[in-house]
Amino acid sequence: MIARVAGCALVAAGLLAVGYSAWPEAPAPLLLCNGYSGLPAARQGAWRDGMVRVPGGTFSFGSDRFYDEEGPPQAASVSGFRIDVHPVTNAQFARFVAATGYLTHAERGISFKDDPTLPEHLRVPGAMVFQQGPDVLNPGWQFVQGASWQHPRGPGSSVAGLENHPVVQVALEDAQAYAHWAGRTLPTEAQLEYAMRGGLQDADFSWGKTELPKGRIMANTWQGQFPYHNAAADGFTGTSPVGCFPANRFGLFDAGGNVWELTRTGYRPGHDPKPDAALDPPGPTLDESFDPAEPGVKVAVIKGGSHLCSADRCMRYRPSARQPQPVFMATSHVGFRTVRE
């Protein structure tokens, strides 16, 4: 299922291979990847509990260069906050589940209250899985009974060996439960976009103005004709270990691609041209959210794109990109990271 990047082991003198605890003031590594356990040490250089400090500032929120739902761009300001240096991993989520006994939405099933239009045969435990590969006649999304964060592609799959991959198959309430347990919250859309931009003011990508600087692939995305052929030029055909690509200037790994990331902001098409707060705009609440494709369903903003985003069909591995995600839905390409304000 997952193709590994050759040579994508860490680049910081092998520190992660033996753990950060011996060097509490060691600098953050240039890359994480296959040598990383998925569990950040409590203290490691600029990191604290796997989080990095993002200074407050003003930025251009949104864009008018790509999709209509990203505009209109507007000046917005956020206060300083701490944010996870990478999406929450399977190892981190497993620690939460072991401590609390929590059952995710996919493990419990979708209720009538969640979505009254859903057929009864889809109200069993399970989740949405994107089917791909040379043996798949009809690639695309399918509901797979028994799919969950521990079995992201269905009962025959496992996260064993994927401890340092982002956790997927989590609905909004699952991400919020983890964040509450950790003493944190999910980011607002403004916070996440600001952090993903890494301080770059007029750049389309978290790493700069061009998608492939000097021809270098900077994120885990889809290369090839979507959805029929993934050339996997980046080395992956699904999720990748966190931190296999360079961090942005704020120190965030996977600030584009790999997995979409949930926010606590309700989705509405486009940005309000008159934001309701000049500082720390919260955006619409979930009760105020609206998706024209699914009226009546509460939807949250997800950002950052995923390994299923291609240049020809979905160039949304950019900070300003945004999509609606039904709050009850769990899928194989959506994860999250948390903030402490």
Write the layout of secondary structure elements.
Elements: H1 15-18, E1 43-44, E2 47-48, E3 51-54, E4 57-61, E5 74-78, E6 81-84, H2 90-100, H3 105-108, E7 126-131, E8 140-145, H4 172-181, H5 189-197, E9 260-266, E10 299-303, E11 323-326, E12 334-335, E13 339-340
Parallel strand pairs: 9-12
Antiparallel strand pairs: 1-2, 3-6, 4-5, 6-13, 7-8, 9-10, 10-11
Task: Describe the protein in words.
The protein is of the alpha+beta class. About 10% of the residues lie in helices and about 15% in strands. It has a four-stranded mixed beta sheet with strand order 11-10-9-12. It has a three-stranded antiparallel beta sheet with strand order 3-6-13, with no helix packed on it. The relative contact order is 0.20. Mean pLDDT is about 85; it is low at about 1-25.
In a few lines, what is going on in this structure?
The chain is α+β, with helices and mostly antiparallel strands and 341 residues long. Helix content is 11%, strand content 16%.
* Poorly predicted runs of 5 or more residues: 1-27
Largest sheet: 4 strands, mixed
**Termini separation:** 37 Å
Tell me the β content: 15-25%
3D shape: globular
Tell me which oligomeric state these chains represent. Answer: single chain
Order of strands side by side in the largest beta sheet? 11-10-9-12
Q: Provide the succession of SSEs.
A: HEEEEEEHHEEHHEEEEE
The count of DSSP E runs of length 2 or more, i.e. the number of strands, is: 13
Number of helices: 5
* Mean pLDDT reading: 86
Helix percent reads 10-25%
Radius of gyration, rounded? 19 Å
Structural class of the secondary elements?
A: alpha+beta
